[in-house]
Amino acid sequence: MLPEVDRELDRLVEAAASRQDSGRVLRDPERALGEQVRDELKIGEAHATPFREGWITGVATAIGAFIPVFPFLVFEGRVAIWVAFVTAMLSHFAVGAARSFFTGRSVFRSGIDMFVVGLGVAAVGYFVGDLISKVL
């Protein structure tokens, strides 16, 4: 056969198979909705087990928790406190900025959002720690 005719025949066979598949999917409304959601959100099949996801999340959390602790291993007193604070706030901003790739918002706006959340957490931690130190 001529290459053009062969390609056209392949295209027609694929189109017929696609119509058949879509007909089967549309007969089941729940499956059709699931396909539409996966297509619109660009969600594929899960490639990891819950156990693996748990390990990845746990290791990421441990690394993230080590970021503000590290300055206390290198510096002492107020210097360690300020370095930890600045490092934590910059990390919050970086995570927020990275989040913008998923949310579609501006890098700066997402970074500031996370920075403010981190600042709030730091303030609450400071005041709760201060309160506990006065009680004990």
Structure notes:
The chain is mainly α. It is 88% helix and 0% strand. It contains five helices and no strands. α3 packs antiparallel against α4 (77-103) and α4 runs antiparallel to α5. The mean pLDDT is 85.
* End-to-end separation: 90 Å
Structural class comes to: mainly alpha
How many strands, which pairing sense, and closed or not: the largest β-sheet? none
Element order: H for helix, E for strand = HHHHH
Task: Give a brief description.
With 136 residues, the chain is an all-alpha fold.
Annotation keywords:
elongated, 5 helices
Topology:
Layout: H1 3-27, H2 29-41, H3 50-74, H4 77-103, H5 107-135
Helix pairs in contact: 3-4, 4-5
